[in-house]
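thought: fold this chain, then report.
action: predict
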Amino acid sequence: RARALHDITSLLVKKLAPLPVSVIHLRLQFMGRQTINAIAEWDEARRRHAIELDKPALEWRTVNLVDFLVAGLTAPARADVPH
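observation:
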């Protein structure tokens, strides 16, 4: 798992290279938190029987989460806002 996470992070950093390093680090933090929160919410909703999480439903949610995360990671950075 650790190796896979390292490899994924390395690939993401390469893809995000045009962005300032501080923006990359912040966005990766946001991505991690959003992923954990989404999965926890799905699990809670499943336990309450508010949603179905069969294989097709989980795949649909996962694909949409990844699309959402990629859009956020690759969004243009505002140079006029100090950090």
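thought: worth noting. Helices lie at 2-15, 21-47, 55-74.
final: tokens above.
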